[in-house]
C-alpha cells in the first residue's frame, strides 16, 4: 500500500494516477467502494469514527491500494469538539497507515517527497 | 543539546520526542508537562500521554508557566511538552508583554541544566483560515517563537504520519 499525503490542491491525485497508470474510473471516495485508489480519506473519516477495521478489510482485498489523505492537522485547534476529534482521528489514522505502508509520499506544490520506501 | 520537534495535530510528534529521549540512554528523565487540565477532553489528552510514557522512566514535573524557575535535575534528559501550551499560559494567563522572552529564558535554563532537552512544538500555521485580530496577533507571536526555538536548536525535525523529516541535523550526541 502507498499512502500519499499533502495539503489541499497540492497534486496528490495527479501524482497517484501517474504513479499507478490508472485512470479516474479507478478512484473511489470510500473503502467500501473497493477501488485501487482511495481518495479523500479525510472526508470519509468525518463519517467513520472507528475506521481501522474497515480499512483493514479494504487492505486485505487490496494490498496494493493507493490511499490519499489531505493533511488537516496544521492549523489552529478548532472550536468545535467534533472537529477536534475528527482532526485527531485523521492524524492517528495516517500514523497507523504510514506504519503499515510500503511507501509514504508527501506531495508539496506538485513535487513528491518520499518519506518511506523507494 | 536541544532538539526541536514539531508537527501537526495527531502527527506522532510526541511519540518521536519520547523515542529521542529514551534512545539517548540518559537514565534520569524529566517530562515537563505544561498543560493545565481543563475539562474532560484535556483530562483525556493527559491520560493518553501518561499511558504512552508509562514504563519509560519519566519523572513528571508540572510547569504551566515560569519555566526559568523550575528546578530540573542537572544532566537529565528533559522533554518539554509543549511549546504552544507553555506560551499560551504565559500569554493569556500572565501577560502578553514579555511572554516569548519568558519562554525563551526558560528554554535556555533547560538547555543549560539538562544534558538533552527535547522541545515539542506545534504546527498551527497552515490552515489558510482567517481569524480575528486578537487570534492573529497570538498566532504571529507563536510563529515567531517557533522560529526562535528552531534557531537555538541543534536539531530540528518535523514529524509527518509518525515519520520524522530532518530539517536540521544535530551533531552526534
Describe the fold and architecture.
The complex is a heterodimer of chains A (118) and B (173). Chain A has 118 residues and is an alpha/beta fold. Chain A is built from four helices and six strands, in the order E-H-E-E-H-H-E-H-E-E. Chain B has one domain (2-168): P-loop containing nucleotide triphosphate hydrolases (Rossmann fold), CATH 3.40.50.300. In chain B, 42% of the residues lie in helices and 22% in strands. Chain B contains five helices and seven strands. Chain B is globular. The A-B interface holds A 3, 5, 7-8, 71-77, 81, 84, 87-92, 94-95, 97-99, 104, 106, 115-116 and B 7-12, 41, 123-129, 131, 135, 139, 160-163, 165.
How would you briefly describe this protein structure?
The complex is a heterodimer of chains A (118) and B (173). Chain A has four helices and six strands, in the order E-H-E-E-H-H-E-H-E-E. Chain A is an alpha/beta fold and 118 residues long.
How much β-strand is present in the residues of chain A? 15-25%
CATH superfamily of chain A: P-loop containing nucleotide triphosphate hydrolases
Query: Largest interface here, residues on each chain?
Result: A-B, 28 and 22 residues
| Radius of gyration of CA atoms of chain A, rounded to a whole number | 14 Å
CATH topology of chain A: Rossmann fold
Helix content of chain B: 40-55%
What would the keywords be for this entry?
heterodimer, A: 118 residues, alpha/beta, Rossmann fold, six-stranded mixed sheet, B: 173 residues, seven-stranded mixed sheet, 5 helices, 22% strand, globular
Give the secondary structure arrangement, pairings included:
The complex is a heterodimer of chains A (118) and B (173).
Chain A: E1 2-6, H1 12-20, E2 27-28, E3 37-38, H2 41-44, H3 52-61, E4 66-70, H4 81-100, E5 103-108, E6 111-116
Parallel strand pairs in A: 1-4, 1-5, 2-3, 3-4
Antiparallel strand pairs in A: 5-6
Chain B: E1 2-7, H1 13-23, E2 29-33, H2 39-53, E3 58-62, E4 77-81, H3 83-93, H4 99-113, E5 116-120, H5 133-152, E6 155-160, E7 163-168
Parallel strand pairs in B: 1-5, 1-6, 2-3, 2-4, 4-5
Antiparallel strand pairs in B: 6-7
Helix pairs in contact in B: 3-4
Amino acid at each position: 500500500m502507498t499512502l500519499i499525503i499533502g495539503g489541499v490542491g497540492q497534486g496528490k491525485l495527479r501524482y497517484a494516477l501517474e504513479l499507478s497508470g490508472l485512470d479516474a474510473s479507478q478512484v473511489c471516495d470510500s473503502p467500501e467502494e473497493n477501488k485501487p485508489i482511495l481518495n479523500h480519506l479525510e472526508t470519509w473519516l468525518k463519517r467513520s469514527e472507528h475506521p481501522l477495521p474497515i480499512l483493514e478489510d479494504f487492505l486485505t482485498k487490496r494490498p496494493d491500494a493507493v490511499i490519499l489523505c489531505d493533511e488537516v492537522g496544521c492549523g489552529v485547534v478548532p472550536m468545535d469538539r467534533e472537529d477536534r476529534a475528527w482532526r485527531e482521528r485523521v492524524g492517528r489514522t495516517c500514523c497507523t497507515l504510514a506504519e503499515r505502508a510500503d511507501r509514504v509520499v508527501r506531495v508539496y506544490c506538485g513535487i513528491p517527497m518520499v518519506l518511506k520506501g523507494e | 543539546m536541544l532538539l526541536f520537534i514539531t508537527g501537526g495535530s495527531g502527527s506522532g510528534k510526541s511519540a518521536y520526542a519520547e523515542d529521542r529521549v529514551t534512545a539517548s540512554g540518559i537514565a534520569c528523565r524529566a517530562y515537563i508537562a505544561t498543560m493545565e487540565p481543563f475539562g474532560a477532553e484535556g483530562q483525556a489528552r493527559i491520560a493518553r500521554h501518561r499511558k504512552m510514557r508509562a514504563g519509560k522512566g519519566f519523572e513528571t514535573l508540572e510547569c504551566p508557566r515560569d519555566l526559568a524557575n523550575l528546578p530540573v535535575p542537572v544532566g537529565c534528559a528533559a522533554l518539554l511538552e509543549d511549546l504552544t501550551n507553555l506560551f499560551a499560559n504565559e500569554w493569556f494567563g500572565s501577560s502578553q508583554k514579555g511572554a516569548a522572552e519568558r519562554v525563551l529564558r526558560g528554554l535556555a535554563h533547560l538547555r543549560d541544566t539538562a544534558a538533552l532537552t527535547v522541545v515539542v512544538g506545534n504546527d498551527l500555521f497552515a490552515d489558510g483560515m482567517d481569524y480575528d485580530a486578537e487570534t492573529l496577533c497570538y498566532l504571529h507571536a507563536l510563529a515567531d517563537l517557533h522560529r526562535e526555538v528552531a534557531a537555538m536548536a541543534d536539531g530540528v525535525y518535523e514529524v509527518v504520519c509518525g515519520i520524522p523529516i530532518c530539517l536540521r541535523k544535530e551533531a552526534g550526541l
